[in-house]
Every structure is written in C-alpha cells, then in structure tokens.
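Suppose a colleague, Dr. K., hands you the sequence of a protein chain of 460 amino acids and asks what its three-dimensional shape might be. Before reaching for any lab equipment, you can write down a predicted structure in token form. Begin with the sequence itself:
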Amino acid sequence: MGMATSLPVIDPATGTLLREHAAVSGAEVQSRIEAAHNAFLDWRRVPFAKRADVLNAAADQLLTGKGRYAARITAEMGKPVMQAIAEVEKCALVCRYYAEQGARLLNEEPIGLEQSEARVVACPLGVIYAIMPWNFPFWQAFRAAAPALMAGNAMLLKGAPNVPGCSEDIARIFTEGGVPPGLFADLPMDVAESPAVIANPLVRGVTLTGSERAGRAVATEAGSHLKKCVLELGGSDPYLILEDADLQLAADRCAMSRMLCAGQVCIAAKRMIAVDSVYERFRDMLLEQLKPYVMTDPAAEDCRLGPLAREDLRDKVHQQVDESISAGADLIFGGKVPERDGWWYPATMLENVHPGMPAFEEEIFGPVVALIRADDTDHALNLAGNTRFGLGGGIFTADTERGAQLAAERIDAGCLAVNDFVRSDPRVPFGGVKSSGFGRELGREGIRAFVNLKSVVVSR
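The predicted structure, expressed as tokens, is then:
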C-alpha cells in the first residue's frame, strides 16, 4: 500500500469537502525525523530560560490568534466555536505553566551516600513522536509538546488525518515562537505510516492519545523497538450520585460533561450511576438539563451541540445506541439520526442500562447519557468498577471527605472528581489505568515522562 498523497478535509456540519491537504512522502518523513534529531542535539544544551521564552512566545501567538485557530478547529472537526476558543486559551496556559515551572520540576536531586554523593539528573531523550486525536486537536498536541520541549526534546506531531490544518497551525505557532527549525514538525500522513516512524532509531519515545485499539497497536510497535511510550486511551467514566448528593449540581455537571464537544471526550461523564433513593429525582433533573442541548451551527457563538467529527463515528454511535436498546435499554430522549446534511446526532438518554450492553461496556463517543440505577452506595461502587476502562470518574455527595476517600480507595481510575466533572489541568498528572492506558501527562510526572533520569555518583 502506497502512502496517501492527500488528506481530505470535510466539514462535519455539512458533509462537504473543504479541500485536499497535501500529505508528506516517505522521503520527506525521513527528512523531518533527521532534521528534528539534528535540532535536538543543539536544543538539549539551550538553557531553561531560553526554552521558557519560546513557550511564552507560543502562548502569545495562541492568544493573539485564538479566533482564527478556533475557527479552524470548528471547520475541521465541528466543535462549537466558543468551546474551541476555550481550548486554544488552555493551550496558552500549559505553555505558561511549563515555561514557569519546568526548570523546578526537573531539578537535580542530591542523595547523600556513605562514601559518596549521588545526584539524579533529568536528561532529554531526543525525538518524541506524538500521535494525536481530532477531538481536541490543539490541546492534546500542546499538552504533550510543552513539557517535552521544555525538557529539551524534539517533537514530531502526527495529528489526526481529518484535522491537518490544525497540526499545520501548531507547527507554525512553535516556529514563529522561536523554536529552532526542524525541532517541532508536523507529519500530515495516514495512520498506516506510523510503524515506520516508531521503528526509526532516531525516534526515542512515543505518546498517543486515542482509542484502545490504536493504543494496543502503538504499544506493540513501541515495545518491539524498546521505545518508551505514554498512552491515554478511551474511558467509560462512571459518575456516582449518592443519597446525600446535591442533585441539581449533579445533573448540571453530568449533562455539561457529557455534552461537551458533542460527547467526543475520553473523560466525559458516560455512565451516570444513581442510588435508588434519589434515582427518579436525579433522572428528571438530568432530563431537564439535556433539553437545551439542541443541534445548531457550530460556528454560532450560542451553539451548545455541534455535529460529530466524521460520518463513520456518527454511525458507530447510533449502532451502539440501537444495540443497547435491543438488549433492553429504554430510549428516553433523542436516539434518531436527523435527516440533514452533515454528521449530526442529537442529545440522547438511555435508561435501564445494565452490564452486557454497549452503553455499559463500551465507550460511546457521542452525546449519549447512560443512566444506571444502583441499590445503594456499595452497589454503585461495584457497578462503577465493572469496566475494563479506568480513565476518570466522579462522585456527588454532601460528605466531601467520604467522597474523597471512596474516590481514592474504591474506584480504579487515573482522575477522580468529587462534586464536579473531571477536567485536565496543567498542574495535575493526567492519565489512566487498565484499558485506558498507562503513563502520565501534565504536572511533574508529565515533564518527566520523556527524560533519562541519570544517576551520577561522585566519591568523596
């Protein structure tokens, strides 16, 4: 199979072809890998203060051009434009955070020994290959790139094929911000070309945000070449509504989390598990909260629910809904593909969802609420843990200490929220367990993901 010569860019709101984006040839991929490695050899010796200047300049570029970048996100993957602006602003935050804190987070650690002293030095690895998704085409790339570049690495970005303009914009932002030529480059190409990049001896690490299937493929490839990898994969995040919860708050946060980006979020609230004593009241409140999420033009500032990013993704969501209904779930709201151009799917609520159904077992990457009734708190926790995923989750309860304890001790996931929904923050480690992947981004752990922690022992 030859390499793709172009990547079609389709407007999800209308289904029309916007343009064909030129793809890179195999020879050009090799050239960009070599250029990144050569740029890294100098960049790793650049002082932290100078690296911070580059990240701050990138943050300035993001904020100055946020309207333009948001419009690109909306056009290529259908995100409501105000959500796209918030995404771009968050990218500036992660650049500022690592510019300010990177040196401290990578500090040498002296260790006193009997006859000597050891120091642990964090040295960059080299070229990092970032395989990034379309749902947050700017944020996912920046949250990987900011710490990697601050640590002294180079980065090659393979954005999703349906958002090539976003990846091109990101590379330009870094270049105009003062990143040395070649140090950060995008690779507009099909996913089938990734194994050759991972195998390249100049590539020293791989970071992927994507599906469980993609994660298994990348982990296999990286492992066979002994490359470090970080994987942030799918989720089927449980949100527990306990008997003492503020039900209005829970309904508001669960609806907001589930409908953000038309439900195409790995850490969205996906399985709402309410205990029997509050189930009916929570259900009615949640239904009310879903009603304002009406499908409208994503370029309009008041849009709350845009289209899904691709036709195949929309069809998959509808199939999962239909299969869940066939298995006994009740459709309360939505669930019908509208007769209009583009990849639209309405806000949808399924009730009587049980283990064995796609709405319980799988990640539904669309605006679909799965409502589950639990007998009590223990039953709710058991249902929450009955999943192969372990990315995020939430607990709503008036007893925040108990909520924090249950989150810490009883739910197997990387990120838990009490009385809110999970959101990533540059200062806090982010990632999953089980089939949701391994490794961490963001925080101290994120900047240390792709460094060689080198022990230097000096005899006294």
